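Hi Q.,

Before the meeting this afternoon, I wanted you to have the cytidine-5'-diphosphate prediction in hand. No need to reply - just skim if you have a minute. The sequence and ligand are here:
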Amino acid sequence: MRFTIAIDGPAAAGKGTISKAVAWHFGFAHLDTGLLYRAVGAKVLAGAGPVAAARGLTSEDINGDLRSPDVADAASRVAVIPEVRAALVDFQRDFANRDGGAVLDGRDIGTVICPDADVKLYVTASAKVRAERRFLELEAKGTDLTRAEVLSDVVARDKRDAERDEAPMRAAGDAVTLDTSGMSIGDAVAAAINHVKLARHVG
Ligand code: CDP
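Predicted structure with the ligand bound:
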């Protein structure tokens, strides 16, 4: 059985949590494609060239702490490079087409990686809400950043992701938008699962 769910959206919108929960609910595999770009970004911070880093990416590169703001920023800088994106396409498409169902989350899954996905969700929330969620995550890990700094990082990264020429962040024409600004994470997960159930029933 092949069934692909594409979940896109801006930084810290809750894509990761929703994708994991949806994958768990349906017994599908999950790929956080942001980790691929973060791993390339981390290698670049360590001195590698971005294209070579993307072409030589291995599963070990995905381990380790890739969730820092510096790595997120480096990820969005390498993500504008067409050769970097091209190097990561086959892996993502193979994952999407695996037997047993797959959930992929990122920025261009519904538009570029899996334009024929069975379900497409665009998960978003106001910049203020997303920055607050990211701030709380970072605070729990002991960040020195202020709320205002986290907000300006999130806004700058969204702008870079939305305005790049190659595979810019945007909702696919046939995606359903889920604005989680006023929702608890539990409500957002339930809404996403309901949407998938409906699509599976209809499809
Ligand atoms: O967790 P968060 O939403 O903050 O970011 P992420 O999903 O881990 O993605 C980190 C960065 O990778 C994004 O800001 C994008 O620049 C890039 N990315 C991308 O270009 N395409 C994807 N499919 C996934 C991530």
